[in-house]
Specification:
The structure is a single chain. The protein has about 190 residues and is of the alpha/beta class. The chain has a domain at about 55-180. Helices cover about 35% and strands about 15% of the residues. It has helices spanning about 10-25, 80-90, 130-155, 165-175, and strands spanning about 60-65, 70-75, 75-80, 105-110, 110-115, 120-125, 180. The chain has a 5-stranded mixed sheet with strand order 3-2-1-6-7, covered by helices on one side. The chain has a two-stranded antiparallel sheet with strand order 4-5.
């Protein structure tokens, strides 16, 4: 007669596997998706009719990024470090220049009359534009609007925009709307 083999005690193996699983879950970092934080406009009603909006050429500045990641803003080639200042000058139009955007007096609830810029920044890029260059330009555009909003908030409440309460931030957004339009990327074919 054969002797029965003693069974292995597997309780400690299960404990070790559980501890290793917990260790790897805690020690492992998960990659998170990065993107552009934008609040999209609400969906239009089904009954709403489309309207063509006519925009005066002086109220638009076109920022282009080509497939070599070179930037052209307002018809001028420039470095990424110059984009913010160009947009701030364009939107604020401090000298009321005829070549920069018009301003329209608007009644802002809780604030009163304020000359709001009709300026729109149109961002256009080539299909060959790198994502890094696109994001850098996007960030510079947002920095420009943030700087204008901070200046407005400092002039009126002696605080930066981020330090204002909700009502004051709404007033700033109404006075300084972030008007950035993005065009569909274009395919630029090389001529032979």
């Amino acid at each position: 007669m054969a002797k029965p083999f003693p069974a292995l005690n597997s309780t400690s193996s299960a404990d070790i596997a559980f501890i290793l699983l917990i260790f790897f879950l805690v020690a492992t970092t998960m990659d998170t998706d990065k993107g552009i934080a934008r609040r999209l406009p609400p969906m239009p009603d089904k009954d709403q009719q489309l309207q063509d909006v006519k925009v005066n050429r002086r109220n638009i500045v076109v920022v282009r990024i080509n497939s070599q990641d070179r930037i052209l803003a307002g018809g001028e080639p420039m470095d990424i470090t110059q984009v913010k200042d160009k947009i701030v000058e364009f939107i604020t139009n401090p000298t009321n220049s005829e070549s920069l955007p018009e301003k329209e007096m608007k009644d802002i609830q809780g604030f009163g009359q304020y000359p709001v810029s009709k300026g729109v920044v149109s961002l256009q890029n080539d299909r060959g534009t790198s994502y890094a260059a696109y994001l850098k330009v996007q960030n510079e555009l947002v920095r420009a609007f943030n700087e204008i909003r901070d200046n407005f908030a400092m002039a009126n409440w002696s605080k930066k925009y981020s330090e204002l309460d909700e009502e004051q931030q709404r007033i700033v957004r109404d006075a300084i709307p972030q008007s950035i339009s993005e065009a569909e990327p274009k395919e630029v074919k090389k001529r032979r």
